[in-house]
Amino acid sequence: MRIHHLHHGFCARHERHERHGLHGGHHEHGGMEGKARMRRERLFDASDIRLLILHFLSGNSAHGYELIKSIEATAKGEYIPSPGIIYPNLSLLEEMGFIAAVQGDSSKKAWMLTEEGQAELAQQQEHLGHIIAKLESLGVLGDNRRLPEIQRAIHNFKMALNTKLGQSDLPKETLYKIIDTLDQAAKDIERS
Hints:
Layout: H1 2-20, H2 31-41, H3 46-57, E1 62-63, H4 64-74, H5 83-96, E2 99-103, E3 109-113, H6 115-123, H7 125-145, H8 148-165, H9 172-191
Helix pairs in contact: 1-5, 3-5, 4-5
């Protein structure tokens, strides 16, 4: 359970780095996609990321970039951890003795799981199952959201809403009708 004990100290360092802009990865994404990606990154806390790293290293040694790609592939591109999330957690796992650096084919640093890391991973299998299921459900969400019929319907919805809300003389009754329609649509989708 050492991952959980060190979680709080790591989070405090992570928050300090975030405030001072010392974490790479967040600043490179601009616009709406960047904001959405940052929100998606918060779906998993630092201990979840460390467990995913241990999981993917249980098969083979890997570089940080390969770990990012493995997580991204599991979520079918709907979640991509930034280097600023992965690399500090790799360093911490190495300090904890759960992973060790190995010499790979290239000059990039690669890591492998240690016996201690394997024991920790075995102990956390139930929690890991929840994290993997969450990643996979993001992939299903993305697949369904990319259906042409869904994209068309969402586009039509946004256009109609923006056109109506862009009117400066919108009566309150119309606003209330829009709000009621949105609330009802949300209920209908939830119950379908």
